Amino acid sequence: MASRNEKRYRKIKKHHILGTLIFLFIFCACMSVVLGGLVRYYIEYMLDSKLGAEYRAVVLIADVSQNYREREGHYSFDIVDDEGREFFVEDADGNVIFQNGGNTRSDIGRKVRFSMFSDQVEVYEDSVDNAIFPGHDGQVHMNIGEVAGRVFSTFTGELDVRVFSPFDEKTHMPPESQADIYVTDAEMINMPLWVAVDMGDSGNRLFGKIYFSAEIKDIILLVIIASIVVLFLVAVQILVLTSTIRSLVNQHRMTDIFFHDTVTDGHNWMWFLIKGEQLLRKRRSAKNSYAVLDLVFVNYRNYCVCHSVAEGEMQLKRMNRIAGRSLRKNEICSHYASANFALLLCCNDRHELDDRIKALISELEKTEDGQRISFHVGGEIINPSIDERGRYVRRKQVDLEYEYNNACAARSTLSDRDESAVAFFDNKMFEEQKWVNTVQANQQKALDNNEFVVYYQPKYDPQSGRLKGAEALIRWQSPEFGFVSPGRIIPIFEKNGFITKIDHFMIKSVARDQKKWLDQGLTCVPVSVNVSRAHFIESDLAEQIRDMVDEAGTPHNLIEIELTESAFFDDKKAMIYTIGKLKEYGFTVSMDDFGSGYSSLNSLKDMPLDVLKLDAEFFRGENSTERGRIVVAEAIKLAKSLNMRTVAEGVEEGELDQVRFLADQGCDMIQGYFYAKPMPGGDFEEKMKNPVTN
Ligand code: C2E
Ligand code: MG
Ligand code: MG
Predict the structure, then answer these.
(1) Is residue 666 part of a domain?
(2) Do 574 and 664 sit in the same domain of this protein?
(3) Domain count, the chain
(4) In angstroms, rounded to a whole number, what is the distance separating the alpha carbons of residues 220 and 226?
(5) Per residue, what are the HEC states of 232-264?
(6) pLDDT of 257-316, one tens digit each?
(7) Residue identifier of the C-alpha nearest atom 13 of ligand 1
(8) Which of 185, 416, 428, 549 is the most buried (most CB within 10 A)?
């Protein structure tokens, strides 16, 4: 169960985070590609359109000059000098043969393209700070940051403004200064580069300074587009991130609620199962033994009744705190339910574990007000699994709930003790559990195959020694397990509810037997049938019994219904109602095992019962002493005063003294081995035929 919950829990957890993260990742990747592509495309477009035109102008100067030389025999740059462009011409040996303006190009040129749409051009950087530069990759690059800086400087009017025009406004000539930066037109920014152009076949080369001139609004447009895209990207990222964080926080809260125990404010059982199983599956814990403990506050309900539920819960909180403090690394503890706590402790040394449990109990017992409270601990050891080569095997599947159930089974063996105690699940308990499972698996089949049989134990009048009645007791004659006594099956049936079917079977069988014996002409005596307390929740129980007996055609006075003493504590009202009905239909009703458990004197007051069956314990060991006899004598007197008959149960073989004593006290019947053990129907028939004992 736990692993199913663990899977569900993980699914919820992963689903949220994974989905958001995947979305965030894909979105960012897509947007980055789109943004990068847009910016790159725009820059290339600008470079191509601006630098391309500039380059073609330099080519034109070179062509015109070359043509002139071919025509006139010498160069004349005056025809192109109007442009005021800076350029110079180198001959094949690298000597400058003509120069217009300064030569501020760098020494190393590179073959680059202005954009993917243009041819390769030899480009030199200008010695002035340059926002455009030829790259190793054969492309001309624009440094966006620097360009943005220049735009910004233009607006702020800072000194290092790189905005200029190559022309002096007055002279329309380049200024004398070699500085490349002039502030004349705040609407434009120009960035210099040198390009080399071959001048025909002469071997001379013309180096012209070209400018990337852009209107600031173009740059601003670029910056705005880029900024919008970046802003949008950032906004979406922030949105997705905040939603991820929010869902993480919610998840954390959900986990807290999922695992929170409202009573102790600590962890709950679900957390214990998930964490515990994770812990047990871990590779490094494979060689460790663990102990699963069920720690219980004994008589918690009584404590709540005496104090209050709130105080009881305070004690549970305190238990949780103290148990939590006693934990070491890789050990866990949680509240299970009611006053039960589950602990998972390392247990490589059994003695040490025992000492730790004792220390925990004594710490828990120290209450502030010095009140005595006690605790029961049930334990189950989970040993490491070892393969055939003696290596520790990692536990793949761990059913912690099953192990905890075993610890509970061990703890339940202590239920009759009031003081603190510890019990561990052992082989005997394991066998018992196996037996419970076997019984459960076979019960219906056994009923269908008539493996359950009715035994009759006669009841005799101690005065006359005459057969006065009998009790029907179930036996299981199993072909597989042999003869099984009710002590080994009835408690199991009572727990799993099968007892109601058994009770029906017994009533029907007894009614049928009685009818058969009546038809044979035998003098029948009333036979009592045990009816379990579980049956009393059914409001029509009396009618059910009546119908079953009527079906067999048996007179109602031959059937007696036995109710156990403890059943009288369940629902008094229902009990009184059903007893009244049964009596109305003519059945006799008796209280079984009177005096065995809680005081039922009060029940005697309210219940209109016919028969009181004194528990066998009255006639055992110390109880058969003088004081015991006084109690029995008074109980018989009490029953008589209430107009009830008495049956003494469990008077053993050879106890003639007791039989005489009971006869003297006026006890109506004795049911015990002294007279007869429970016997099959056939043997009981013989007893009816010879109703007086010798
Ligand atoms: P119970 O109803 O109190 O039955 C009396 C038990 O005491 C019987 O045990 C009987 O064999 C035993 N007994 C009688 N005289 C003596 C004696 O002198 N010495 C000793 N040592 N024992 C004596 P049994 O048959 O083992 O039944 C045990 C209990 O199982 C019954 O106690 C009853 O509570 C329950 N049970 C048996 N059959 C049924 C049934 O058909 N339905 C239900 N609901 N419970 C049943
Ligand atoms: Mg009985
Ligand atoms: Mg009894």
Answers:
(1) yes
(2) yes
(3) 3
(4) 10
(5) HHHHHHHHHHHHHHHHHHHHHHHHHHHHECCCC
(6) 889 999 999 999 999 999 998 899 887 778 889 999 999 999 899 999 989 999 999 999
(7) 650
(8) 549
